[in-house]
Design goal:
2 copies of one chain form a homodimer.
Chain A: H1 11-25, E1 33-34, H2 36-43, H3 47-59, E2 63-66, E3 70-73, H4 78-102, H5 105-123, H6 128-146, H7 150-168, H8 177-193, H9 197-220
Antiparallel strand pairs in A: 1-3, 2-3
Helix pairs in contact in A: 1-3, 1-7, 4-6, 4-7, 4-8, 4-9, 5-6, 5-8, 6-7, 6-8, 8-9
Chain A binds a DNA duplex through helix 3.
Chain lengths: 226, 226
DNA sequence: CGAGGCGGTATTGTTGACAATAAATGCCTC
DNA sequence: GAGGCATTTATTGTCAACAATACCGCCTCG
């Protein structure tokens, strides 16, 4: 894959990575107000690079900043989370369509083999939810880059996924869903392998739509406090 | 509307706005390598806020930055510009669909009246291209915000439009297209007014698809050097 | 007793100087 | 004369001090 550089090349990059993962993992809770100096001591940084990272995070919508009043982690309401899935639906649908047109045969083969390993991960039930989440992320990540649409991949991987992942960590997938999701992944890859771009788009949209409905149902049942 | 604050609230915001408009208008040409100190003197800023703005611009994909090697304005190839339109197609389709479901009657009425004024602007042929571009931007802007999908609006208005507008300035619309575009706008609004979300999505997608093909054709004819 | 204004304090925004890195130039060697 | 290496230089990255602003508690006044 080779996505992350060997090491953050500059202190600002380092700060950016630290903050981003801290937000995604929930180490910095949504809605939490955070002071700059506190963050500096926490991540061994100085305020210059930190502020630069803060700006980038704000631009990506993970932070909100009020002038002279500090920054706080964005808190996404349940409704907004569902809206995110609406966006994912159309964007990843496009990604799947373009991936079907443009992925190399090697990439498709790799994609299929990753699905195999995801299946194994799910079989050994321990840590099922976590591995499923990671596997799911891996799958969608590959489709996004496989679209050969740089901006699309950037928006999906840089903007949307991080916001969704904020909630993945506390959103344990419901029983039975992992298998269903994997099956849906399989069908999408199948369509891509057959270069059936229309079908790939359709299946991807339906896949994400199903995930959204899954969350929607949980919210209705009060199983999910956001 | 009331979008832009009365004045940039902080120096970094000011820097961000300056740089962004400078890039969009072409004052800073794509591919141009720019030094920080030069920018500082040009916009009467100091390097701190400037760097913060630079980070935000980079995060939005208008700049590319190589550590210790300076920043340069992103140069979008013809192929990438067309890819941008593919993204717009699906995202604005979604925006139109949600706008049809969620815009208030007042907003729809306003939208219709803005179309009237756009028509007048086109009638008086002078500066046709410019007004058309602005009117087009205005229209799509309203649809995006009308979707009541904050993240969608943010991604469209914050990420995509600025990149597209970089090329709008040198992309004179072809003869006859303004009228056609206005007509397409009219139909979309009509669908929204009738709360026909499916039709609104369809028409919007087709509208942007037509714009893309228009550009594609120009590129093929060598009328467009990118 | 409540509301509004006022000052202290802590936090953010900004600045200029310092250090580290990469590009560029000139020199030396082959 | 050409190529590679070391030095120089300019640019970026980083830091710590300074200034400006908003929040909080207190006091006064209605």
């Amino acid at each position: 894959m080779a996505e992350a550089p060997i090491q953050p090349q500059t202190r600002a990059d380092e700060a950016f990575d630290c903050l981003q993962t801290a937000i995604v993992t929930g180490e910095l809770a949504p809605g939490e107000k955070i002071g700059e100096v506190e963050l500096c001591s926490r991540f061994n940084l100085t305020r210059g690079p930190l502020r630069e990272a803060l700006g980038r995070l704000e631009s990506r919508g993970l932070l909100v900043r009020r002038p002279h009043a500090g920054v706080k982690v964005v808190s996404v309401s349940a409704a907004e989370l569902l809206e995110l899935y609406r966006i994912r639906e159309v964007m990843e649908g496009l990604a799947a369509r373009q991936a079907a047109e443009r992925m190399t045969d090697e990439e498709i083969a790799e994609l299929q083999s990753t699905l195999d390993s995801h299946e194994k991960m799910i079989e050994q039930a321990q840590g099922q939810a976590y591995y499923q989440a990671e596997g799911d992320y891996d799958f969608h990540h590959r489709i996004a880059t496989g679209s050969r649409n740089a901006k699309l991949a950037q928006m999906l991987l840089g903007d949307l996924y991080y916001m969704v992942r904020m909630y993945r960590y506390r959103l344990s997938t419901s029983a039975g869903r992992p298998h269903k999701a994997l099956d849906e992944h399989r069908r999408i890859v199948e369509a891509i392998a057959q270069r059936d771009s229309e079908l790939a788009e359709f299946l991807m949209k339906r896949h994400i739509n199903a995930a959204r409905q899954n969350i929607e149902q949980k919210i209705r049942n009060g199983l999910l406090a956001i």
